[in-house]
Design goal:
The complex is a heterodimer of chains A (608) and B (490). Chain A is α+β, with helices and mostly antiparallel strands and 608 residues long. Chain A contains 22 helices and 20 strands. In chain A, the strands form six sheets. In chain A, strands 2, 3, 4, 5, 10 and 16 form a six-stranded mixed β-sheet that branches. In chain A, a hairpin with a 6-residue loop joins strand 18 and strand 19. Chain A is elongated and about 135 Å long. In chain A, 43% of the residues are buried. Chain B has two domains: 11-190 and 343-483, no CATH class; 211-313. Helices cover 68% and strands 1% of the residues of chain B. Chain B contains 19 helices and two strands. Chain B has helices at residues 11-14, 17-38, 52-71, 75-99, 120-136, 146-165, 169-173, 178-184, 189-207, 220-240, 247-268, 274-295, 298-324, 327-336, 348-360, 371-374, 386-418, 423-447, 465-483, and strands at residues 110-112, 116-118. Chain B has a two-stranded antiparallel ribbon with strand order 1-2. Classes of the chains: A alpha+beta (608), B mainly alpha (490).
């Protein structure tokens, strides 16, 4: 019966088994011992990091008034697998959508190319941020709509319709944000403008996490290692702004119908009391799902309401620039407070003529400031640039001049704690050499009266006011007064001294005081405190810009203010009265009855 | 007729306790794996009868009872009843097609009571093994006799077709394992070789179907299949009919023509070289046909059939693939061959299985610590894909351990089969061996992504009463036969 030949075939059969096992062991070695990312994939599969979002810090004004806070919003969520026996019409009616919309939303959710994280077992966003009123109706009926849920999360809410440029807004992070900071994940919110952006790190707090185990259907099966790796979210810090919201509101009211800016600074601290940019918008327009629509319409708006003109608008300062010139000439010894220059209808020399208006001639510094004499400052610059005993060349004089300007906070960003500040323009010798073939004191003479190439931001003009009020130094202007449980950056407390000796500032103060008493700023005079001011009428391709820079009280100043109204004409037309009202409101707390009438008049004067 | 002693005395001393030991070890190892696979983080109750691990414990205990009972039944009984059992089983299989409710598309489960279901196909294997064993256990039977060979093959194919009719293709394929038994019993090795060849044709033909030789309108897959048909046919001719006249000249001629055609296509005018190769193959067929007409040797006819079928694969491969296979089977094969990357769909199981096993590393994550299997990323994690749990929780060490234990088990069974005094015992023994090899090959192969996803269990590991009872039945009938090896028979 035994067949020796066939019996050898047992080796073939055993060999097959051996071969199979051998191949499988090799395959196991490749899968389990080789370099591959199966391990990571398994972890990504099974571990679900449930992010616990911290509440974002609130924002208050300098007097503790709440400006920005969090408000719960309600997203309608759906678990498609659980939809059962749905009364579609009733749901659509409750949510205020049409049946077509309902079908479209649902098919978008199920389309994994549009919604890569889709799972029929987990909650998917159906309609974001329904109003609280709809929520209360929906909540009553929710039990009838199986598979539909409401998810609560926080959105920003604003107490006042003001200060939009300062407060800024939040929105979903962009891919770039995620790339720049791995704290953010898709769908997170981040400050996009204003202090929401510049103080993002303080406001956002720290996310917490719950490490959970998730099965293949997205259902949570429990905590990973009993919560060993969980962390609690730390809420964001509250900010206290230096803004006085009432002053800000008044400023925005006064600027309505006009383009321009008002900046008020507390000289002793550098704290910004109001920062108005007009036209402005209601910050509430940028909440939630309306944001995109409003942003688009504002971006398309010719008047550019999104632009924060106070820090991002660079304007010719006009005569508000003259104090800086007087100070430079005094410090450089080009003039003394008594040096007179002739001015008969302006500065006339060779072919150059800069017009001026009627006033006695010759004229010294204080009356020159009071009457805003162009001739005086042109002669000053002419003498400075052509002073060969002090400067070897016009270039050197120009460089010296530029250094003075920079020391006063012009030509570079001041470093305010808001995004989007621009540096303005202070030309230097290289600039002119590059752009003009031959240049001399005469060809650049208009910079002495704040025209020509010179541009400043309204913030820089206001800062000049604060510097004069302080008699020679300023503190970096800033918008955040304090951070609860933290402190503002040291750079915002830094004291900057100009290159001009404080005693020369007294001459400028006298000049600005006499401008109010009997010069161009008469409209700022009041019976309660001593105002110092300087108008500006900046020439422009169109109608002149109306500007004002001032501070009060003259001694121990509490507020320095700059007003810039595009196409507003003479400085006295808009700049002076607006500046005066701002100072009055801040120093006295309330406007007098007369002032209220004036404020109302200005509010209703539009410039197209 | 057997005239074995009526007593069970002496049986226990001659039982093969090594195999029983391996059986128990595999069962316990399997039970721990089922615990791992069916463990629920939120309801960690391993012994609860609500959980699969608890139920598996019941199946294991009942298997021990079944095993003890089987050891009481003498070999004589099987010899006498083999035909009856076979016929009964065929009847049950036919009945199942009509009475079984639809379970996930399959009509193979018969519900008994409310929670227990049995799958007759799992039990039919031992019936087939007994029947062919008894049929072959007669003096002078030779599988080289075509008539008898055909009868045996028929006995295997018939239940297979019935199981396919139950939509349990995977279980039906297990019956192919019996051909290994037939091989041991004298079936020509060329049959195995032919089967192997067709698998190669199919795999190569499909995998490289859409890839082309540079600058030539020649599908690498098709061309390779044609060349392989030529080479295999020529190989068979040399193996069995070395002395045919002019064979070597034929072969050299074919090769030269082919090389010339290839060079012509590469450098002169690109054309489909397959046409030339087909002509060469046809030439070879005509040659073999002529040989048959000349000397009427049956072998020539078989080789001719092989040659025609081989070259025919070139035409049939696509047809079978696109028209005969069911959609899900086609997709599984495409995924396996790497023609389709479908992580979410058909490739999902295998991809997740690979992730689970790969994440186990060398030592594994530890008992009940696997996340991939526990959180149901791997489907069928406690039945067909149970090996994932071993891979994830016990790592390389555990997985290799399981494979080596199986190898030891199979090796032991081969020894047992070879020491049987008669054909019934040996055929039955090799049936057991072959079925275990087949299950091991297909089940672990599919988990590792090497064989198509065919839903058959891993013996002793996969959760489920039918398969466990089926394997116990298969094994312990053989162990009792083996225990009687020293008794005088006949």
């Amino acid at each position: 019966m035994k067949d020796v030949f066939l019996e050898r075939r047992k080796f073939v059969i055993a060999g097959i088994a051996l071969f199979v096992v051998f191949v499988y062991i090799c395959r196991l070695a490749y899968l389990q011992l080789g370099q591959n990312d199966y391990k990571d994939t398994a972890i990504h599969n099974a571990i679900y990091n449930k992010v616990l979002f911290p509440s974002r810090g609130a924002i208050y004004d300098r007097n503790g008034k709440l400006l920005v806070y969090n408000q719960p919003a309600f997203d309608v969520m759906v678990i498609t697998r659980e939809i059962n026996d749905l009364d579609t019409l009733a749901l659509c009616k409750t949510l205020g959508i049409s049946k077509d919309e309902f079908i479209k939303i649902l098919s978008n959710i199920k389309d994994t190319s549009k919604n890569p994280g889709y799972s029929s077992y987990s909650q998917q966003l159906f309609i974001p941020q329904i109003p609280a009123s709809e929520y209360s109706i929906l909540q009553e009926k929710l039990f009838r709509f199986k598979g539909f849920y409401v998810r609560e999360h926080n959105i920003r809410q604003y107490t006042y319709p003001n200060a939009a440029h300062i407060l800024g807004d939040i929105a979903e992070v962009s891919p770039t944000d995620i790339e720049n900071d791995d704290y953010y994940k898709s769908g997170d919110y981040i400050g996009k403008q204003g202090v929401e952006k510049s103080y993002e790190k303080e406001l956002r707090g720290t996310k917490g996490v719950e490490v959970l185990l998730r099965d293949s259907r997205g259902k949570i099966q429990g905590r990973y290692r009993n919560g060993e790796f969980d962390s609690v979210p730390r809420p964001g810090k509250d900010l206290r702004l230096s803004i006085d919201i009432e002053l800000q509101a008044l400023g925005e009211r006064l600027m309505s119908g006009k383009r321009g800016s008002i900046v008020a600074i507390e000289p002793s601290t550098g704290e910004i009391l109001c920062l108005v940019s007009s036209p402005t918008y209601d910050p509430r327009n940028l909440i939630g799902k309306e944001r995109g629509k409003h942003i688009l319409s504002m971006v398309q708006d010719q008047r550019r309401p999104m632009l924060n003109r106070a820090i991002a608008g660079a304007y010719p300062p006009g005569s508000t620039f003259k104090p800086s010139q007087g100070l430079t000439f005094l410090q450089e010894g080009i003039i003394t407070s008594g040096t007179p220059f002739p001015c008969t209808g302006g500065f006339k020399y060779k072919n150059m003529k800069v017009g001026c208006h009627g006033h006695p001639s010759p004229i010294a510094l204080v009356p020159a400031l009071a009457t805003s004499c162009n001739g005086f400052f042109c002669w000053g610059l002419y003498h400075m640039f052509n002073n060969r005993s002090k400067y070897s060349s016009t270039n050197e004089a120009m460089t010296t001049w530029k250094d003075y300007m920079v020391s006063m906070g012009f030509g570079y960003k001041l470093g305010i704690d808001l995004p989007g500040e621009v540096r303005g323009m202070i030309p230097n010798a290289e600039y002119y050499t590059k752009h003009l073939n031959h240049w001399n004191a005469l060809s650049v003479i208009s910079i002495s009266i704040g025209q020509g190439e010179v541009t400043l931001t309204p913030l820089q003009i206001a800062n000049q006011g604060a510097t004069i009020a302080n008699r020679g130094h300023y503190i970096t202007p800033h918008i955040v007064k304090s951070i609860k449980g933290g402190s503002i950056a040291d750079s915002l407390k830094a004291v900057h001294h100009t290159k001009v000796n404080p005693r020369y500032y007294e001459d400028i103060v006298r000049g600005m005081r006499s401008a109010v008493l009997g010069g161009t700023c008469k409209g700022a005079q009041n019976p309660w405190y001593e105002v110092c001011g300087k108008t500006g009428t900046a020439q422009n391709k169109g109608h002149d810009h109306s500007a004002f820079m001032g501070f009060a009280p003259m001694n121990n100043p509490k507020i320095a203010v700059a007003v810039y109204v595009e196409n507003g004409g003479f400085g006295a037309a808009f700049g002076v009265p607006i500046g005066a009202l701002i100072m009055e409101k801040y120093i006295r707390g309330e406007l007098s009855a007369d002032s209220k009438v004036r404020a109302s008049n200005i509010q209703h004067r539009s410039i197209n | 007729m057997y005239k074995g002693y009526q007593t069970n005395k002496g049986i226990f001393s001659s039982l093969d306790w090594i195999t029983i030991g391996l059986y128990v070890v595999l069962l316990i190892w399997g039970w721990f794996s089922v615990c791992g696979a069916s463990y629920d983080f939120s309801n960690p109750n391993v012994f609860g009868f609500g959980s699969n691990s608890g139920k598996q414990m019941i199946w294991i205990c009942t298997s021990f009872i079944l095993a003890s009972a089987l050891l009481m039944i003498e070999k004589r009984f099987y010899y006498n009843a083999a035909t009856f059992i076979y016929v009964l089983m065929i009847f049950v299989l036919i009945l199942t097609i009509f009475i079984a409710p639809d379970t996930k598309g399959s009509r193979s489960w018969i519900p008994i009571g409310s929670s227990i279901k049995l799958q007759p196909a799992e039990f039919a294997k031992f019936a087939v093994a007994l029947a062919i064993g008894k049929y072959m256990d007669r003096y002078g039977l030779s599988l080289t006799n075509m008539k008898e060979f055909a009868k045996v093959v028929g006995m295997i194919i018939f239940p297979m077709l019935l199981i396919i009719a139950q939509k349990e293709t995977g279980t039906a394929l297990v019956y192919l394992a019996f051909f290994l038994v037939l091989y041991r019993e004298g079936m020509s090795g060329s049959a195995l070789f032919a089967a192997f060849s067709f698998v190669v044709y199919f795999v190569v033909g499909l995998k490289y179907e859409d890839e082309y030789i540079t600058d030539m309108p020649v599908s690498i897959g098709e061309f390779t299949v044609l060349i392989l048909s030529y080479v295999f046919t020529v190989g068979l001719m040399y193996r069995y009919e070395r002395h045919c006249p002019k064979l070597t000249e034929m072969v050299i001629g074919g090769i030269v023509i082919n090389i010339f055609a290839y060079l012509f296509s590469a450098f002169v005018i690109p054309f489909n070289v397959c046409i030339v190769q087909i002509l060469v193959n046809i030439g070879l067929m005509i040659y073999i046909g002529a040989q048959y007409i000349y000397d009427k040797k049956f072998k020539h006819l078989l080789i001719l059939a092989f040659a025609i079928a081989s070259t025919g694969t070139f035409f049939l491969c696509d047809y079978v693939f696109n028209n005969i296979l069911q959609d899900h089977q086609r997709v599984r094969i495409e995924v396996l061959l790497g023609k389709k990357e479908d992580i979410r769909g058909a490739g999902y199981n295998v991809n997740q299985a690979k992730i689970a096993i790969g994440s186990g590393g060398f030592f594994g994550k530890g008992f009940l610590k696997g996340t991939q299997t526990k959180l149901r990323y791997v489907p069928e994690q406690d039945t067909d894909f149970i090996f994932c749990t071993v891979g994830e929780e016990e790592g390389f060490i555990g997985s290799v351990g399981v494979l080596l234990f199986y190898l030891f088990f199979i090796w032991r069974l081969i020894i047992l089969a070879e020491r049987q005094p008669d054909t019934l015992g040996r055929v039955y023994g090799y049936s057991v061996v072959s079925i275990f090899i087949f299950h091991l090959f297909v089940n672990i192969g599919m988990v590792l992504g090497l064989t198509p996803v065919i839903g058959i269990p891993l013996p002793f590991f996969s959760y489920g009463g039918s398969s466990l009872w089926g394997f116990t039945l298969l094994l312990f009938i053989f162990l009792r036969m083996d225990a009687e090896r020293n008794l005088k028979s006949k």
